[in-house]
Amino acid sequence: MNLIELTATGFGFLCVLLTIRRSVWCWPTGLIQVLLFIIIFYNAKLYSDLLLHVIYVFLQFYGWYHWTRVDAGNRNLVVKSLAIPWLGCWLAVTTAGTIGLGLAMALWTDASLPYPDAFTTVASLVAQILLARRYVQNWGFWICVDVVAIWVYFTKELNATAVLYITFMILASVGLVIWKKQLAKQRTNEVAA
Predict the structure, then answer these.
(1) Which residues span the membrane (predicted)?
(2) Which of 17, 18, 31, 76 is the most exposed place for a label (fewest CB within 10 A)?
(3) Is the pLDDT reported for residue 168 higher than 80?
């Protein structure tokens, strides 16, 4: 554990707390976390995670923009739910992407743990896109990512990062419950209106 990993961990924790609260400040906080993890994953030879975090830089700006649009200026940010066919499509994208990226990393790099690393990368991208669009299902993808990431990071002796992902898993579970309640509340209000 070093200062960069510890700092990234702190910003990651804060980012998820702000996301659960549906605060637009989750995006700049997440941007700092992402930039620091680029350095960490380069040093750990987790190239899929490195690639993911480079893409995250752009997704942080995308999410920040999307959440600051007209309807995002209030604390009760509207959340949505994916239709079942769309959820199936995102699951298929995750599976195909994991196999493809894992194979590429196994064949063309000295990547450590190419397939689990590829899964956390692809599933995280899907989760991040769903989060930026405010779909409740983003939390389910994050929980799956966290379970695999915890094992990967403990294996690579990135202990602070592994503990962060244990915390992320707990927070993602809380986020799922809170966002589902928000969705139910919105649906009740729509019926009443």
Answers:
(1) 24-44, 50-67, 87-108, 139-154, 160-179
(2) 76
(3) yes
